[in-house]
Amino acid sequence: MALVPYVATAEMGLQRFHKPLATFSFANHTIQIRQDWKQLGVAAVVWDAAVVLATYLEMGTVELRGCSAVELGAGTGLVGIVAALLGAHVTITDRKVALEFLKSNVQANLPPHIQPKAVVKELTWGQNLGSFSPGEFDLILGADIIYLEETFADLLQTLEHLCSNHSMVLLACRIRYERDYNFLAMLERQFTVSKVHYDSEKDVHIYKAQRRCLREDL
Predict the structure, then answer these.
(1) Taking the domain 41-210, which CATH number applies?
(2) Mean pLDDT per 10-residue interval, the chain, length 218 residues
């Protein structure tokens, strides 16, 4: 979702973001993700959190076959593409300005027989939620979407709308600022949250969240 300026340091290896293609191997497929830093900034490059989350999905910890999933703030679409290749029915979302770019990556990387399992759809957090049924998805995915404090309330509202009591949320993020912990604290008021994976090389955490049952809060 992040079509905003992003402060990055030289050691982050910004040169890789300026490459027109980023190539990965997931689910026995070679995936070539088109990047466009100059036009769309942070929404159009592959961040480490997306790679780590895609790798985690490939581990098979979560059953994806037949699963109804949604990716929030998809950017390049890598996570949603991998989820579809692994058998999920995926709705891959971002803001309107990024949709054509996102759609091009999805179409370029999914074989024709899998493409019907992946839908690219507009979603601005906290706004057009009416186009999604409450509790519609089994699995909600997000990679590096926790960093803008002004979006936290809208993101939480969106998660609450999309989740049923049986849904699972997987959020991959690098904790960069104290405010990132603030979002996790907000999330814990409505969800049971646990850390399920940590990639020490990329310094990326994956958190699992599930909506609290009413009796847990009593």
Answers:
(1) 3.40.50.150
(2) 42 63 95 84 85 97 96 96 98 94 96 96 94 96 92 96 96 88 94 97 97 63
